[in-house]
Amino acid sequence: EKFKPSEAREIIKTVLKEKLVPKQQAPPSDLNPTSKDMRT
After folding, report:
1. Where does this protein have compositionally biased stretches of type Polar residues (predicted)?
2. Which residues contact 39 (CB under 8 A, 6 or more apart)?
3. Would you say 39 and 26 are in contact if contact means Cβ atoms under 8 Å apart?
4. How does pLDDT run across 1-40, given as a tens digit for each residue?
5. Do 36 and 29 touch, CB atoms closer than 8 A?
6. Cβ atoms of residues 37 and 23 within 8 Å
7. Has this prediction a pTM greater than 0.70?
């Protein structure tokens, strides 16, 4: 099935937001285990 452009935009927005969020405001690493490695 095709990936909807709107869905892709939402995912990109979420990923960008996560990258811009400072460590203190970051969600718990158990929600996104890879983010911990990327942030350190």
Report:
1. 31-40
2. 23, 26
3. yes
4. 676 888 888 888 888 887 776 666 555 555 555 655 555 5
5. yes
6. no
7. no
